[in-house]
Amino acid sequence: MKRNFFLLSILNILAPALFFAQNPKVDIQEYEFHLKLNDQNNIIEGKAIIDFKYTESSDVLELDFASEENGKGMKVDSILQKNNSLKFSQELEKLNINTSSAEEITTYYHGIPKDGLIINENKYGDRTFFGDNWPNRAHQWLPIIDHPADKAKVSFYVTAPSKYQVIATGTLQEITNIDNENSLYVYSSPLELSTKVMVIGVAEFAVQHRGKIGEIPLSTWVYPENKEAGFYDYAQAEEILNFFTENIAPFPFTKLANVQSSTRYGGMENAGNIFYSESSVDGRRSSEFLMAHEIAHQWFGDSASEIDWSHLWLSEGFATYFTDLYAEHKYGKSKLDEKLQQERRQVIGFSQGTKTAIIDSSRTDLMELLNPNSYQKGAWVLHMLRRKVGDQNFWKAIQQYYQKYKFSNATSTDLQAEFEEVSGKDLEAFFKQWITQYGQPKLKLEDTYKNGKLKITVRQLQKNEFEFPLQLQLNYSENRSEIIDFDITKKKQIFEIKTSEKPVSIDLDPNTNLLFEEAL
């Protein structure tokens, strides 16, 4: 997901500290959601058929499901199992169902979603319905386990006024005119997904089917009022999809639909149907890197997912760096360097106010994890890892990691293990200092020149100690320069270099390979 900083600052003030842990007693196998929408009011009627199993003995099935409060929220009407009514209690964010039998249950409910399913008018004044689940907002309109580690198959049966088109997770199975006023759309995914990327989108769309990339149908869904601009802008998905498919693995889902929507984020990487903000369409293709970010998520975040919220960089750091890699592929190394230098500034700025590591389990408001540690620092870790093991090993390890954890969940340690296996290097110190330790090196450089010898002193001024390779570029007169490589292993190190003349200047990290800040 690409962040919208203004909206997130407001939401962080308003959002309660809600944190859902995985329920270790239950494994959801499949969801089947039947939803009825209307234009008279914002009430939705829902039926959720849930196939599950207990992983340990229990007599209560606990789901995440927001209850009704002050006229908004979901009210459960009844729950059946094998045609028998089950007792249940619904309070605040939890739905507890009394059953010791791990057999399919059917939950009937209704209400006005407080969040998660956004029912509103778009920028043209037309009514729309868009799922917007991240991080744990899906339980505001669906009875589920709202945690990325609990993956399940999903189907959506959406009945809506016939003027709308419906896009949803999975492959379109059916369109039926129910009566003169309503139509039924059925989508189904045979692949197991986290609830954060299971959505529907209902609006008056202009739809362009762009054919198949490999075996994957590619389509564009935009508002009719900006159809030409939207079709033009979103056509860039073809080149982006090709790049990732060729370098990572085949596209993991059954379709890719790029959808103009009212998501609160710049873009939201819903599996197989990405929702972009309304402003992403401008006819100037200014959202190319936004699209690359969200398409990269289809592999990293949607298919191979973080096992818990604290490992979010395995999603957002990957999407950020793979956007950088796409930029390098299309525009050259200078564009990669430009993006990395910008990301480095964002990391440094964030670290000056917040002393946390990339892996941060202290957060209870998950929106706070949408920060430069998860995004830009995560990208920098991958870039430094690429430099440490070499391009060939980097891509091989990425592909191996993805193949092992696709449609599953991983930790940062799992990623480390794959890179160690491919490269043959011990990466324990690398991952410890960059992933679990706060900050980055703060470097001060001092130099003196005497009798043909240049003495360079490198000091680390930050509290924590780092070990890293460092390049210095010595710039001489007459446009001559040379690059020298050092291994920094201590807080203070002195190096001597024989040279026939004193450099006019010395540049730190000329090839943009190190996350650091320079002491003034």
From TrEMBL:
Keyword hit for Electron transport: no
Peptidase M1 membrane alanine aminopeptidase domain residues: 234-434
Catalytic activity: Release of an N-terminal amino acid, Xaa-|-Yaa- from a peptide, amide or arylamide. Xaa is preferably Ala, but may be most amino acids including Pro (slow action). When a terminal hydrophobic residue is followed by a prolyl residue, the two may be released as an intact Xaa-Pro dipeptide
Membrane-spanning residues: none
Keywords in alphabetical order: Aminopeptidase, Hydrolase, Metal-binding, Metalloprotease, Protease, Signal, Zinc
InterPro entries, alphabetized: Aminopeptidase_N-like_N, Aminopeptidase_N-like_N_sf, Peptidase_M1, Peptidase_M1_aminopeptidases, Peptidase_M1_dom, Peptidase_M4/M1_CTD_sf
Cofactor(s) in the UniProt record: Zn(2+)
Presence of the UniProt keyword Plastid in the record: no
Ranges where the Aminopeptidase N-like N-terminal domain occurs: 30-195
Signal peptide start-end: 1-21
GO function term, MF aspect, one: aminopeptidase activity
EC nos: 3.4.11.2
Family statement: Belongs to the peptidase M1 family.
The protein's name in its UniProt record: Aminopeptidase N
Organism in which the protein naturally occurs: Zunongwangia endophytica
Classification of source organism: Bacteria, Pseudomonadati, Bacteroidota, Flavobacteriia, Flavobacteriales
